[in-house]
Fold:
Amino acid sequence: MKTLNLRLRQYMFYLCFSYHLQLVKMESLSAANTQFCLNLFKKISEGDASGNVFYSPISISSALAMVSLGAKENTAAQMFKVLSFTNPPKPDAVTPASHQQAQHGQHGPSITQQTQTFEKCPPQPDAGQKTEDQIHSSFNKIMSEVKKPGAPYVLSLANRLYGEQSYQFVEKFLNDAKRYYEAGLEEVDFKKKPDATRVDINKWVEKNTQGKIKDLLPQGSIDAMTRLVLVNAIYFKGNWMEKFPKEATRDEQFKLNKTQTKPVKMMNQNKMFPLSFIPEMDSQVLELPYVGNNLSMLIILPNEIQDETTGLQKLEKALSYEKLIEWTRPEVMHQQKLLVSLPRFKMEETYDMKSLLISMGMEDVFDGKKVNLSGMSPNNDLVVSKVIHKAFVEVNEEGTEAAAATAVVVMKKGRRIPRAFIADHPFLFFIRHNPTKSILFCGRFCSP
Structure:
């Protein structure tokens, strides 16, 4: 009996350790994705400091991670570095799990703290697993968490491969894409029917984003030399935990800068919300939870416009993974009775990611002379020609509706906290999945 009890305790210990190990791996990948998200934001801002920005970092990351399944040598190394997989920032000891516990008055150790209990454990069976496998496995687990059935919101993530029917792909690449990203291969005729195939891909994207992302691939983006298109689509619709009363929405002026304004429909409500203050940035952070509290919109708002453009330049320059974690820690996000004023808005943005990724250091995968995608094709004659990302968001009194899609085309070859949060001037916002700490969408609202 003693032997049986000991074995049972050992088995339970192993299950518990494995579970927490998985959570820490997910946390590490979320940190990498957040770092990539902010690096990309700064690159986009370099080209346009005062325009609206909206994209889904997890859509872009997972589409590129699928490509990395077939990348080798320097091509793979560059991809991993730009996606922050190589040296992800260290996840903070305070996790979204403990954040939710704090909000609901519960107490308990965070994932990281709990894992430290098991640090002296003997090595587990997967200890020798490749870093690459761990990354792709963590993506799979994050997507499973995000898409949990029965959630009080609609959130879908879908991946698909479209491959030239006459072209030979490496079986391991296809199996790994299916295993980690649930991306099945659809054989198509790029050689004879490139435009018809493009239309079919666009229809699939439109269907998987509830009609919000249309014509992801423009005319001419697919031709007879195309061999593979990798597509990721994400769609989210959630209702605020505290809805804005429609009768409280009023016509107001939104300040674009110190001198210009535009009319906007401003939503208003007076309820309890988590709020923090960033003294060094003279800014506030508001959390607007969605029903179920698994997802939140985080809004970072300067108290006033202090520069000659949007008023966000100082904030954007300081923004990093560590700062974002620091500014949204549960210890600093205090529930307060607040008047919240937020514009009702829609945004639709399209990005040609190729130039952005090259400027971030992901060069070889787009260079026919240097690329190594031999893990995709035994011929090693493939090169990525395009990465296109399109995103949509609508914020209204009920909640938020957002969608995004990414296609990778591979060719052959010190003040007091105010009691009001008035977002009548430019702000940054993030839609976060709290249990995995994953940023699903990132945006900057500068102009109605």
User: Anything to note?
Assistant: Residues 13-23, 93-129 have pLDDT under 50 and may be disordered. Residues 227 and 253 are 50 Å apart (CA to CA). The first strand starts at residue 53 and ends at 55.
